[in-house]
What we know:
Structural class: alpha/beta
CATH class of the largest domain: Alpha Beta
Shape: elongated
CATH architecture of the largest domain: 3-Layer(aba) Sandwich
Distance between the termini: 80 Å
Amino acid sequence: MQGKLYLCATPIGNLNDITLRVLQTLKEVDIIAAEDTRTSIKLLNHFEIKTPMTSYHEHNKIEKAWKLIEKMKAGQNVALITDAGTPGISDPGEELVRLCYESDLEVTSLPGAAACITALTMSGLSTRRFAFEAFLPKGKKERALILEELKQEARTVILYEAPHHLSRTLTELYHALGERNLTLCRELTKRYEAVHRTTISAAISYYQENAPRGEYVLIIEGISHQELHQEKQQAFQTMPLLDHMAFYENQGISHKDAMKLAAKDRGVSKREIYSALLSLNENNIP
């Protein structure tokens, strides 16, 4: 019999949020792989869990994954925990899960706390559709690319940020996205939990006078469909008509349908597009 990987969600602050199923599993598995054993030992000691523990983190995620896989192939069950929340969400646990499937090992997830979902549900912003970005990339080029993508994001956006980087990130968001409604959540489920519903510009001003404290989850309102349509329409209106037609025809769309789409993008009739194209063709005749 092969062993199994258990993804065990742990509290993000309040220890009472741990589930009975997770407690039972942590006691019964053969080994616990923890992101930071120094942090996790406090949790295990609090619940009097004596299961052996080993480290599994960003810097050993591949090498250690194979060692854990060997243990599971030998019949041992492994529980994976992160410092706080659900493993595999914005942490190296996703690599272990992927390699387990490649090795034909069974994986299961024991649900529980997740900071992104906790913050979203109490944000007061739309929860029907959302995009989770976790921490923005550190590299300038990749960071700029993600911010440009978020500019056109109609879904509610969830970001994580450390207190010492918060002001810089808010400023970058304002330059990239413009003014948006924003909910800032910090110290979730802890004694000093705080939820601040505001706007990006107001948050920038607030943290110029007040030092950020604690880990933050940013819930950002997506661009409205009306604004998105207006931006696309403005972009197409400045595009040369022949380039606009080529944009659709290069996708295999017929000339007739491309005229319909171009007319809709530019907010004009199909007849106007036809006349403009006819005029362009006549002017190009030698």
